[in-house]
Structure formats: structure tokens, C-alpha cells
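no rush on this but wanted to send it before i forget. theres a chain ive been looking at and ive put its sequence and its fold in C-alpha cell form underneath. i want to understand how the C-alpha cells follow from the sequence so walk me through it. thanks a lot i owe you, the record is right below:
>
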Amino acid sequence: MLNGRLYRLSWLVAALALLVALLTLETPGGTPDPPLPPAFDAVAARGIAADMAEVAPERAPGTRGDAASATWIATQLAAVPGATPVRRQRFSVLGPSGRVITENVYVVLPARTGAAAAPALVISAPRDTPPGVSGGESGSAVLVQLARSLGVVARNRPVVLVSTGGSTVGNAGARWFASRFSGWPIAAAVSLDDPAGASGGLHIWDDGQDGRRSIPVASAAEQAAARADAPVAPAPGPFPQMAGMAVPQTSGDQAAYIALGIPAVSLASRPEGPATGGGLPAEDSLGDAGRTAETFIASLDEVDALPAPAAGVIINGRELRPVMSRVVILLLALPLLVAALDLAVRLRRAGVRVTPFVAALLWRFVPVVVALLVAHLLATAGMIAPAAGGWPPLAEQVPFDLAAIVAIVLSVGAGVLAWLPVRHRATRRDAEVASRAATGVIALGVVCVLLWIASPFGLLVALPAAHAALVATRARRPWQVVGLALVAAAPAVLLTWWVAGRIDRGIPYSAWYLIETTASGARGVIGPLLAAAVLVTVWSLGSLVMSRVRRGLVASGPYRPVPTEDERMARRGRRPLPRASLPGRRG
């Protein structure tokens, strides 16, 4: 069925175009040196952290500790020289444990150089901690100490200092503030997510929940750390970057600003993931974080404009620009798309109707949609953890308990029950099985294009399975089919392994976490539906290939996409199908 020569030629063209695309790698731009060296007082910052730990060692959203720490922060910010009066935003958010009421506390330092209309810089610090976790005061300590030092220096831009609540409930505080603050346009945002811990070096988070990143701002943060003589943890490699854009998973407040198109990063003392607590930070660590943040803010204050977030990739310190990233992914799909187009032309010339085969694919889609819908309803009913303010909740808020097991059984059972009445329509045996496979390839190409439009890096995860399903139609040995099945499953395994590192859990739980947060609607609708469509089309092609394996027909050669006249007449019931024309055998 597959035109092997055309498929290989398409790979050659794609490889040459990929080499040209890689020649476009650029070094991220820099920021100017700040006018003054950093003068951050680490001793004072440690005293602030100790005071906050005494007031509220644990600050789960909506608790007394959260309220007490908000009042304490308000008192500290009220003493900042040159700041506007303290303002408090009280809000509620629906999370896995129910509705939570918390608040943001913020002040504004107006520009000192007369540029009152310049967009503002936002410096925020998550105030809350996960339930049962103490520590994490370094972000608030650096925020307060920065406010004190920034209040007495000249600035080109207004600076907004925010203590956010609800960061552990889908970054609710940062999202609330970013969407409702109207004093000035926001040029960029920096979140201080416990930046002074015990790990080796400062970690810079630059990814959002929508597949975009703030690479130029992250590069500026690295330069600021170098100017402040602060160690920086190694940046993630290309695969973690692409996985983070294919299936976004971040707990940093920078995601709230990126979702609104505002460049933002978080400075943290740990790899990307939720806070785990700890004792008071050391002065050296506080000094590194404070000097970096102060230098970073001063550098951003000198920049006229900052690039908006986009889906780029850093390879060996150089950036593959967002447009080229999309082009590269499309090139990897080119052989599949060429094969789909070739089959579409051949079927059309032969006068083969593809409508029945498309209908069969749609019937296969029914049980998947039913299972997802039932899981979503169970999340709404509280049997599995719902979204945290519309975003994926923390891992500890998604337990794998008896209720979760019952929810899995009910969802899978609903899918099976939905499959029973449509099974005959979706899998009926007919003489034009090769044309059905060709239609599956065409549908797979269409779905891949739609997925590329909606989520290019999501397509990157699906492409190995799509290519494996296509090549499997030409397999001549059972072991080849098994090898291609392993290739198809590899991206899902690697993605689960990557999520396990992000949420600090094992691979089995991470698989459950991915499924549950997708079914609950925390990861949107369009992306999961298109991913399910890829799964269904690959499943359809795989079922045809496995049928040939069970019947021992793999060695007889590939399918012919255009049926013979005997096959056409047999399908219409006008003559028996000759034995030599069985699907998979050469007529």
C-alpha cells in the first residue's frame, strides 16, 4: 500500500530541509549592564525569613497561617519608602479540596525618572505552601528586602511588588492579579519561588501552561546571575524542553503571566516542581538569589521592549526560533503527509469511495470520547480530583485511592459498553480492507496537520506512532510489527518518565496523573481530543496489521490500496471472493 520509494524520497527532502533549518540557530539576545552594582542585604533578608517563619510556619491556602502571613506581609510592604498604599485582593478559587478563599497583597513603586507611562515590571513571590509543608520563606524575604532597596533608587519603569496567594491551587493568585491589575501595562514579571534553598545553583523556570516559553527573559536572568556571581543550575536539554511544550507541566507563577502573553520567569532553588519545604535559608543562598533578582530587575528596567512568549527551543546554548521550530516539526511529518496525499490521489483515480471507511474510523472514536466524558463527569462529582482553578493540580492532590480505582473501572466500562453496539460498524470485514487501511493513512495525515496547528510539540510526540503505523502496513515479518509497536509506544513512555521527574513521583503514578488530569479537563479540550484522534487512527491501522499477523498473511506482502474488480464485486455481493484475492494476498 505504501509507496516506499516516495516515502524514502520524502525523508531525504525533509533531512536536507532540517539541516538548513538548524543553520538558523541564533544566540539569545542580551540585556544591558545595570547602572549600579547590586547591594542586596542578605543578613536582613534572613531576619525577614525568620520572622515570617515564626508568624506562620505553614501557610496552606485558606488557612489561618495563610491569613496571618498575608497580614504580616502587608505590614512589611507598608513600610517601603516611596510606595503606594498597600492593596489587598481577596478572591476564591475552586481546587481539588474544595473552594479556597485567599488574597494577594501588593504595592507599587512609581517610576522616578518621569516615564510614568512606561509598562511596569512585576516582582511577585508565592506566599502559600502545600498542606503540611513548612518553609519556603525565602521568596517573601527577598521580595521585602528588594522592595526596601528599590524604594530609594531611580527607575525608568514602575515596579509592582506582589505577594500572591493560592499558588498551590493552579497559580490562582498570580492569575487573578495578572488578569485584573490595570494600573499600568505589564512589561515583564519575575516570580521568586523560594529562590534560596539548599540545592546547587539557581533554577530558572520559563515555561507556561500553553506550550509557550519566555526564552529571552530566561537568558537575561542567566546573564544577571553571572553578573551577580551566583551559580545557576544547568538548563534542561532539548527533550525536556519539547516535552514541556507538548504536555505543559509547571507549578511556577510565571505560567500565569505567560498565558496572557507577558514575558515572565521564576527564580527557584529547585528543579521545576512543587515546594517540598525545609529550614531557614542560609545567608549565602539568600545573597545569591537577592543579588541576581536585583541585577535582573535593573537590567530589565533598561530594556525598551521584551519579546512575547513563544514556543522556541534552546540547543547547545542557541535558540531555534519559534517559527523554525514549527517548520522543523512539519518537516518530520512530511513523509507521512506525502504518503497520505499519494494514497488520496490513487483512491480518487480508482473511483474508490472513502466515506464508509471514514465512518468506521468515527465509530472507533465513540468509545474513547464516552470514556473521557464519563471520567470528566466523575471528576465533577468528586470521585477523582478536579482541576485546580482550571489547571492541573499538584500531584499530592490527585490520590490513587479506592475512589480513583472505581472511577477508572467506571470510565473503562463505559467505553466498553459504548464499543459493543458500534463494534460491527467499526470492524466489519469487507473485501476492500486495503482501501480501508489507505483511508486510515489519509485520516492520520489530516489529524496530524490539525494537531500541528493546535500543538506542534504535541504532534512531535505523536509522530513516531504515526510513522510506525504507516510503515507497519509494509511489514513482512511479525518481529517487524513488534519492533514498530515498541517505537510507537516509546514517546508515551518517555513523556511519562519526564512527568515523573516534574512531579517527583514514580512512573506508574505519573501515568495515572497524566490520564486523570487530562480526563478532568485540566489540560484543555482541543489537544486531548486531537491526541485521541491520532490514537484511534493508529489503533485502526494497527488492528488491520495485527489481523494479518494472526492469519499469517504478513509475509505475503503489503496491501494494495486499489481493489481489483473481483474484490469490488465481492464487496457488493455479486460474486464470491476468489481465494487468491484475500486481503493481504497478491491477486
About this structure: DSSP finds 18 helices and nine strands in the chain. Residues 187 and 306 are 7 Å apart (CA to CA). The chain has two domains: 42-317, 353-581.
